[in-house]
Amino acid sequence: MLLADVVATSRAVAATRSRLAKVELLAQLLRGQDPEDVTTVTSYLAGSLRQRRTGLGWRSLQHLPSPADEASLTVSEVHHTFEQIAALSGTGSQRARADATAELFGRATSDEQQWLKGLVTGEVRQGALDSLVQEALAVVGGVPVAAVRRAAMMAGSTVDVAAAALTGDPDALAEFVLQVGRPVLPMLASSASTVAEAMAKAGGGTVAIDTKLDGVRIQVHRSGDDVLVVTRSLDDVTARHPEVVAVARALPCHDVVLDGEVLALGPDGRPRPFQETASRAASSTGVHLTPSFFDVLHVDGRDLVDEPTHVRLEMLEALVPADNLVPRLITSEPVEAESFATQVLERGHEGVVVKSLAAPYAAGRRGATWVKVKPVHTLDLVVLAVERGSGRRSEWLSNIHLGARDADSGELVMLGKTFKGMTDEILRWQTERFRELQTSDDGHVVTVRPEQVVEIAFDGVQRSTRYPGGVALRFARVVRYRDDKTAAEADTLADVRTHLA
Ligand SMILES: Nc1ncnc2c1ncn2[C@@H]1O[C@H](COP(=O)(O)OP(=O)(O)OP(=O)(O)O)[C@@H](O)[C@H]1O
């Protein structure tokens, strides 16, 4: 398969509005191709190389050789070159890496060079494409999309199941079962503006009203004394969470997979400011973190993923001590649910997650079986640039430029700027972070690679001719930086527009 075809398809998909047409374009690309190439392309379309580390960064791609006139690079040549680059180590590896990169880029057309550069630096990470690629794999393999999704959830990625999907054999996909110790893609929530609306969305009847804890998502796997803790993005953070490991080891079972949130609590049981949880989760500080679990996917040889929520919750409550359970109310009464939600907010938590009791555990944000309700609306936006501070902030990078992706064009569109809500700790952190991501500095504005996601509170969204998206945020302020989301998972321009007054 030619790399040029992948580049052209990725551009065409970005330029097409219709979901069906996008899936068809992807299916055309994947049909009849070698499974190894399909695996590589599945990874590339989601915006990642297959190698975890290549030692290549933005700086090593600053000066590219002149491009080739004609497209000749194949996907497999590209993959093997990165494979070789990733394997380099020791003396002379820097030189060898630069030579291999120059050779690869010298064989790429100008279009391919830009695309490959985005791939290597992670700029084109398009998580949103993942579910379209799953659909395309189902079409090409002639297997149900549900089977592809389920296998991807169990494997922790679509890339790992692409080849199996192409065999057209549902049994090949069914082989991806939950394995204790292998992270599973997490279930996500949709949102509603009131508890009653969320209850209706979750199917009505009796539902669970979960406290929405404002911490950091964790998935915990235990087998005997071995414990693995991963984040929402499935990164291994076991070493940073000794408290979680201790709680998991103390449970009366041998094998277990749990889903939950970890956060810093004060002596009164109220949550501490999120920054304390975040900084402790990033490096060891004196803060104690408490895990609170809200779901269980496996206990001692029994997979629970397909069990309805009420069964999973019964198992969870039988296994985990009350102090490590997310407080919840089971009810069918909107009035009771509202009053529980009010108490949750009074206790300093973020909101509630309404959960259908009949639904199985399913990765992603599909359907409406988990519906979150938060009174304070925030948007997850991408930082495009940052201005040097002045006065008290002259040592720091301060005013950040905020962007959201226009899902139609794939472009990031600026929505406004803010220097509000930043503590000294945030200023220090962001100065260092944006220097790392810097692509240019005109003495005032430092442009950065659009990779850092920031959670922004705002008072409203208004129409504006000032910014290209036609909207601007009123009183935007920083709540926190989010390292557990990629730019592809940030809110889109369409999400922002839903807040228009
Ligand atoms: N009881 C709970 N049940 C499910 N998720 C919970 C619960 N308490 C806190 N959470 C958090 O809420 C998130 C669900 O919301 P969503 O899927 O929209 O993810 P998100 O974009 O990270 O959300 P947010 O920024 O609102 O936390 C989970 O990822 C988890 O971190």
UniProtKB/TrEMBL annotation:
MF annotations from Gene Ontology: ATP binding; DNA binding; DNA ligase (ATP) activity; metal ion binding
Positions of ATP binding: D210, R217, R232, E261, F294, R366, K372
GO biological process: cell division; DNA biosynthetic process; DNA recombination; DNA repair; DNA replication
Domain of life of the source: Bacteria
Listed cofactors: Mg(2+)
Catalytic activity line of the entry: ATP + (deoxyribonucleotide)n-3'-hydroxyl + 5'-phospho-(deoxyribonucleotide)m = (deoxyribonucleotide)n+m + AMP + diphosphate
Record keywords, A-Z: ATP-binding, Cell cycle, Cell division, DNA damage, DNA recombination, DNA repair, DNA replication, Ligase, Magnesium, Metal-binding, Nucleotide-binding
Annotated EC: 6.5.1.1
Active-site residues, Swiss-Prot/TrEMBL: K212
Domain (ATP-dependent DNA ligase family profile): residue spans on this chain: 282-406
Pfam families from the UniProt entry: DNA_ligase_A_C (PF04679), DNA_ligase_A_M (PF01068), DNA_ligase_A_N (PF04675)
NCBIfam families: dnl1, PRK03180.1
Biological role: DNA ligase that seals nicks in double-stranded DNA during DNA replication, DNA recombination and DNA repair.
Family: Belongs to the ATP-dependent DNA ligase family.
Record's protein name: Probable DNA ligase
Provenance organism: Aeromicrobium fastidiosum
